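To illustrate the input format used throughout this study, we show a single complete record. The first block contains the structure-token representation of the backbone; no residue identities are included at this stage. The design step must infer an amino acid for every position from geometry alone.
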């Protein structure tokens, strides 16, 4: 059940559901999602559903990963992308196929360590991973061409908007527990343009590290 055929079938389904960017579809064909979940769940890795990764967190649904990645790339050709909420490392691995440099921040030390080990084994050398509070972003490497937030804040975090470079795009689920609006913010100089594109459901973004 973890064969390339199963994976291809999922990606074909995502294309039918409106994911149109061929680069994103190729990346999803190439990154083995089953390596980012526990072995007991590997047989379900190519279902279009979120799955538990421990600590009450989830690896996002493939459609959401595809759609957010597509939205991020649509704004241009981002060279440096910051992800908030490393979780399993899967979204970071997809981004690493499409973007020269990926930075990712996770607040839970145990998940961060597991993700780091997986990404090391996958020999993805263009990802830098950090144990930290995503509400603060990662100022040392700012500004970013793209910022992708994969846990839900109730409002757009100020530090992330500040670390978004000119012409850059931020994609984030914004809202309370259970239901959020997938929100796209584009920076044009000092101006920020914001629009909502879909209803989604993410785990909440929480303050501080653990
Ligand atoms: N992108 C992940 C899915 C992440 S689930 C993947 O591909 O698997 C959301 C993750 O965000 C969880 O691991 C959670 O611990 C993390 N998170 C929540 N609040 C955070 C914060 N303030 N800073 C960094 N990570 C945070």
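Output of the design step:
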């Amino acid at each position: 059940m973890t064969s390339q055929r199963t994976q291809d079938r999922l990606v074909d389904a995502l294309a039918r559901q409106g994911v149109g960017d061929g680069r994103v579809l190729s990346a999803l064909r190439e990154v083995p999602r089953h390596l980012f979940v526990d072995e007991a769940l590997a047989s379900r890795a190519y279902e279009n559903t979120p799955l538990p990764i421990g600590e009450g967190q989830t690896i996002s649904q493939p459609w959401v990963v595809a759609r957010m990645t597509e939205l991020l790339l649509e704004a241009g050709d981002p060279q440096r992308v910051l992800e908030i909420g490393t979780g399993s490392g899967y979204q970071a691995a997809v981004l690493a196929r499409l973007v020269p440099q990926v930075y990712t921040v996770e607040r839970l030390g145990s998940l961060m360590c597991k993700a780091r080990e997986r990404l090391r084994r996958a020999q993805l050398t263009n990802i830098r991973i950090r144990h930290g509070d995503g509400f603060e972003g990662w100022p040392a490497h700012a500004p970013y061409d793209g910022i992708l937030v994969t846990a839900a804040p109730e409002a757009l975090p100020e530090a992330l908007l500040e670390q978004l470079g000119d012409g850059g795009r931020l994609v984030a689920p914004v809202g309370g527990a259970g239901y959020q609006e997938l929100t796209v913010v584009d920076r044009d100089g000092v101006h920020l343009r914001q629009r909502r594109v879909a209803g989604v459901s993410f785990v909440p973004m929480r303050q501080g590290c653990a």
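Structural context for interpreting the output: The chain has one domain: 4-200. The chain has a mean pLDDT of 96.
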